[in-house]
């Protein structure tokens, strides 16, 4: 499957992300603030669907970081910045090796429901200490008006959420209440809401 322009170029991906954040009146530099606050010092971290691996800049230097993504362009870009990333399908994670904290940020809405649930169950089974899922939810605002317009104008394949592997996420995104219910169906978790995103922290006993 072909990637949209956004997923074909690291600069364009970052530009669209920045525009998305500002359309939600949220400073881009706060992108990973809650996630990084949930990652205590001295932990090994696996970032599944890591994109450009930007999260690695935001976690404490005492932590080790590894990111997996199937986007070869993003992975090459991250490697040039000496970020520890691998060109790997996250659905193939089989618990080997093990990591203290597994993070899945802004990826769930890319996956169909079956893959989404399987991945979440695997993360919850294999993480040593904690799993953090972060995802955005649909709202009635300018950003989603533009996202819907893009879809209606048939621009989804060119400028939409086509990552080269999955179908467009246009119809796969939840509204706020449905996203919370979905996340809570996986067990007890701490829920944080930050502008257009929900972060669910599952701490293992
Ligand atoms: C919206 S980006 C999120 C990137 C990053 N985690 C962030 O928070 O900014 C979604 C990423 O998930 C990746 N992805 C989707 N399905 C995947 C799969 N099965 N295996 C690996 N990566 C996948 C895409 O290539 C894309 O880079």
**Spatial extent as radius of gyration:** 16 Å
Largest sheet: 7 strands, mixed
Task: Quickly give the CATH architecture.
Answer: 3-Layer(aba) Sandwich
- Bound ligand species: S-adenosylmethionine
Question: Mean of residue pLDDT?
Answer: 93
- DSSP strand count: 7
Unreliable spans are none
- Which class in CATH terms? Alpha Beta
Distance between the termini: 40 Å
- How would you describe the shape? globular
CATH fold node name: Rossmann fold
Give the count of structural domains: 1
Q: Helix and strand succession?
A: HHEEHEEHEHHHEE
State the helix count. Answer: 7
Portion in helices: 25-40%
- Strand fraction band? 15-25%
Largest sheet strand order: 3-2-1-4-5-7-6
Structural class: alpha/beta
What does this structure look like?
This protein is of the alpha/beta class. It has a single domain, classed as Vaccinia Virus protein VP39 (Rossmann fold, 3-Layer(aba) Sandwich), CATH 3.40.50.150. The chain has 7 helices and 7 strands, in the order H-H-E-E-H-E-E-H-E-H-H-H-E-E. A 7-stranded mixed beta sheet has the order 3-2-1-4-5-7-6, sandwiched between helices. The chain is globular. The relative contact order is 0.17. The structure holds S-adenosylmethionine.
